[in-house]
Amino acid sequence: MKLLNNTLSIFALGGVNEVGKNMYAIQYEDDIVVIDCGGKFPDESLLGIDLIIPDITYLEENKEKVRALVVTHGHEDHIGGIPYFLRKLNVPIYATRFTLGLIELKLDEHRLKRDTKLVEINSESRIELGKIEASFFRTSHSIPDCLGIVFHTPEGNIVHTGDFKFDLTPENNQHSDIHKMAEIGTNGVLALLSESTNAERSGLTPTEHTVGEHMEEAFMKAKGKIFVSTFASNVNRVQQVVAASIKTNRKIALLGRSMINIVSVAIERGYLNIPDGMLIGSNEVEQLDPGKVTILCTGSQGEPMAALSRLSSGNYRDVSVYPGDTVILAASPIPGNERDVSRIIDNLFQLGAKVIYGSGSTTGMHVSGHGYQEDLKLMLTLMKPTYFIPIHGEFRMLHHHRQLAESIGVENGNTFIIKNGDVVDIQNKAARQTRQIPAGDTYVDGMGVGDVGEIVLRDRKQLSEDGMLVIVITISKGDRKIISGPDTISRGFVYAKNSDDLLKEVNRLTKKAVTDLQKENVRQWNVMKQTIKKSVGQYLFEQTRRRPMILPIIIEI
Amino acid sequence: MKLLNNTLSIFALGGVNEVGKNMYAIQYEDDIVVIDCGGKFPDESLLGIDLIIPDITYLEENKEKVRALVVTHGHEDHIGGIPYFLRKLNVPIYATRFTLGLIELKLDEHRLKRDTKLVEINSESRIELGKIEASFFRTSHSIPDCLGIVFHTPEGNIVHTGDFKFDLTPENNQHSDIHKMAEIGTNGVLALLSESTNAERSGLTPTEHTVGEHMEEAFMKAKGKIFVSTFASNVNRVQQVVAASIKTNRKIALLGRSMINIVSVAIERGYLNIPDGMLIGSNEVEQLDPGKVTILCTGSQGEPMAALSRLSSGNYRDVSVYPGDTVILAASPIPGNERDVSRIIDNLFQLGAKVIYGSGSTTGMHVSGHGYQEDLKLMLTLMKPTYFIPIHGEFRMLHHHRQLAESIGVENGNTFIIKNGDVVDIQNKAARQTRQIPAGDTYVDGMGVGDVGEIVLRDRKQLSEDGMLVIVITISKGDRKIISGPDTISRGFVYAKNSDDLLKEVNRLTKKAVTDLQKENVRQWNVMKQTIKKSVGQYLFEQTRRRPMILPIIIEI
């Protein structure tokens, strides 16, 4: 994009009109600061895709201007894209102690730690990034050590909230710094970027503390083993499980790689307190009195390979669920995961477990980490921004957030609902949204980043629905006689052993197409292949109502 | 199964441990009566499958004993399998007038109407089916003309509830016949089969009537066009939309094939009352004052090809959603559909519509047709069965339903939680569950019924994730020299144009595998193919972390 003097630009590369892959940036002349670099899980239509990350073409084209990646907190939708980002842009990463711990786990996996500059910050830090300075404030969320950011620019102050709710009685002293937020508001906020996840939900988010009370109650009643499945990164909830286990004299085992890794980081860095000797190995579980064990496990979203799913189908090596055991699902299913989660619940019931499941408001075992409407209004009120850019959410959430801003006095025309790639330029305190930079989804598939596009996905879709049929025929170079074949090989289309007649007719139609064309003296391979495809495809559709991918292969000898 | 004299057998061929494809049967000696024949929609793991229907092997093997298919009501999970059932077993179908209307739509589509004997019954009918007699009672549900069934057998009376709730103020006079149910209970019920869909939900289902009140309120407020999306078969809800439209002086257009078909059946057969001249064509919508039109449309479950989805993406031929229009989603998303539904809602917001969405209890625009716990307890209390078989639901629902039965006095040991295929035998009033008959999922894919099995699905899965690679090589018969190739064709794996080096190496490895084997004088095609697969597969996984299906084709000339 054209360099604009004395202009402050704000844009999203991911996170608006979607839930996931958050990435925002602000630019003042030659300095760009990037906020977060998240991943997003593909829906079932993106066959074979492992992860979606933001398209960072613009940042690559302006490599020399990118001063830093500042990370607000350690959730996947804020850090999941970092390894891919670093391969293109090796800039320093600023984050809090716990967030850095989670980023380091990721960099270890990708063998990127040695070459990356990681800078630990806290809410009192102030960092200089070219003409942009950043200071911070603490927020409460469902993971420890979250930050909101104030960017001090020559044009004015820009606030990015990160993810937040206002929890006045959080666990582990993870308070929102309301006094500091008030001061930031008093000093003047030119533009506020605030998260919108729960902008559709009225009221104030319940405090995490209530979960602890319900947890303790359930622990008091339970007789057998207790399994608790939750996000490993929800360290404060893990702490409450620890507290309930202490009260009921239970030891704790951890199941699942991410549970073990993240709990280790949390303990090492001082965010989680587990008394010595309380943690046991999964191999010790079955040796103890069932009433003396708590098992913390991954898989609350129904992930088929995670611990809870394997437990529910009796496929976990060391540990089994027995009649009389209690299983607590201390997380709500993310939209799209409901069916997988309910399959697991059903299996657990079949094993005879008492399962505590359902929405958090029913069971009391889960509260959201994202502020509801009253939380969002409190943030807006504290910050009193001139301009407002709702971020982090689907369009309807941004839309509702705009209405909340209006209700506390932000002029409707001063709210910008942007798409990924839209740029809001502010010059002399006047904001307008006219330009766009490249933005979109980059697909990660195995080791490939961005190499799988529409064509490959379209082929996968066709293959997934009706399979395919390869037809090979060998033709002599001179007289163009059929020397061998046609032979057919099908996969995912019909069960070949029961489809003799069908495949014989395919061979006959192929032969006919080839000889007919030869009579007309048509010699182009492409025409020949198209003719075979059409004739065979039509026949197969009539016979089966399926449209397998047909691949005619003509070999000339 | 062995014929048991003086024994009454009850079994499920579909509908327990699942939601969908309901099919139950009772047998007394040489007489079998089948209840319902439903379909079930596949989840995303069943690639390319269109519908799941019950495995009816047992009925086919006992063809001459099957006296009738009795259908409780016209929902897809109770009638969706009928066309496939009829192709194997041409038995008479007994159902109410409205249910028959929906079955006939289906038979028309499959060209089966002429050869099928359809018998209209009502709640006062009594039919003789060999040694089994059937009488009926009316229930309330989310579709008109529902029946519960009493089977009078030499061993005692068996009651099948169908789907029901107790709605004391239903629309269109679709009352539950509580007096008759009480009488049935008084006469003695040996075994009760009762539906379990909402056995997890406490309280009593709200009446359909409340929806009408909320609908009217929303209609009063709306300025532009009003779109209401709901299940077409929920005729009573459609009637309430008609009522609100009359009050606000709006004409009604119908969008979507099933909306048009089912509304026609309902009008013709007297279940829906729309004043003359009130229905307009979709092509007339845009000509009228937006404040004077209601549009009833399909697609409340987010189905991508249905009317609502096409409206939300601006792809409906005659009708568009404009800013200021109101869209009411008068149905809850079925688990698994949440993501598709929320995508549509988001698109509608982007078009500037006011969208009324969310759970029925929040919006008031939807109530369930399935009884909650208090409804289920009322049925159990009225019937006072000796034996209880909870049906129609996942295991956890059946489990909860058993607890409800216990709470009103059914001995725990007298409740049978069965799987599809389990048989409950009752002889001299003593019930036991020891035998099993074949049962399971039969997949419908295009015109194929049951021909797609595990192998085809496993291939589709591999193809869907990483695509495939065909490698063709031609070898001379005599000296086994490579005459042509190897040539590679990939689909859904990598974008071939950018993968020259990768595919070159595949060719080299293939050549090497072939020549190495020839040196060792290995001549079996299978060994050769396996060696190529292994060598190429390993290389590709190292390079890409993908596992495409590899199909080596060796042609011998």
Automatic annotation (TrEMBL), chains A, B:
PANTHER family from the UniProt entry: RIBONUCLEASE J, RIBONUCLEASE J 2
Named cofactor requirement(s): Zn(2+)
Domain of life (superkingdom): Bacteria
Function: An RNase that has 5'-3' exonuclease and possibly endonuclease activity. Involved in maturation of rRNA and in some organisms also mRNA maturation and/or decay.
RNA-binding is among the record's keywords: yes
Pfam families: Lactamase_B, RMMBL, RNase_J_b_CASP, RNase_J_C
Alphabetical list of SMART domains matching this protein: Lactamase_B (SM00849)
Manner of cofactor binding, per the entry note: Binds 2 Zn(2+) ions per subunit. It is not clear if Zn(2+) or Mg(2+) is physiologically important.
Name of the protein this chain belongs to: Ribonuclease J
Molecular function GO terms recorded: hydrolase activity
Domain called Metallo-beta-lactamase: residue spans: 20-214
Taxonomic placement: Bacteria, Bacillati, Bacillota, Bacilli, Bacillales
Homology family: Belongs to the metallo-beta-lactamase superfamily. RNA-metabolizing metallo-beta-lactamase-like family. Bacterial RNase J subfamily.
Keywords for the protein's UniProt record, in alphabetical order: Cytoplasm, Endonuclease, Exonuclease, Hydrolase, Metal-binding, Nuclease, RNA-binding, rRNA processing, Zinc
EC number(s) on file: 3.1.-.-
